[in-house]
Amino acid sequence: MNMKANQPWVSICQVTDIPKLGSRVVQRPAGNVAVFRSAADVVFALLDHCPHKGGPLSQGIVHGESVTCPLHSWNIDLATGEARAPDEGCARRFPVKVVEGEVFLSL
Length: 107
Hints:
Order of helices and strands: EEEEEEEEE
Helix content: under 10%
Strand content: 35-45%
Shape: globular
InterPro entries: Rieske-like_NirD, Rieske_2Fe-2S, Rieske_2Fe-2S_sf
Pfam families: Rieske
Organism: Iodobacter arcticus
Largest sheet: 3 strands, antiparallel
Keywords: 2Fe-2S, Iron, Iron-sulfur, Metal-binding, Nitrate assimilation, Oxidoreductase
Protein name: Nitrite reductase small subunit NirD
CATH class: Mainly Beta
Radius of gyration: 13 Å
Number of strands: 9
């Protein structure tokens, strides 16, 4: 992961605070961020807003490295934020890193 020296990294939780195949929400005035954990303990962060109709991705079902929006079943790739075909759209991604089990987010 390419990390810029001036990026403000914020500690948000421990990896174990995020359920496997689940999420945790980081609230912020500019829109909440959904932080996801795969079965392989890979962590991803997306704006908690489906590109289709704005559904809360944090309430979706995580499978592999995708999340299914709870409103209309769009599948969103956690690594890129891209909707999987045939759907089109993209959820904003946020840089995330894990250091010694602690999750850091760059907003």
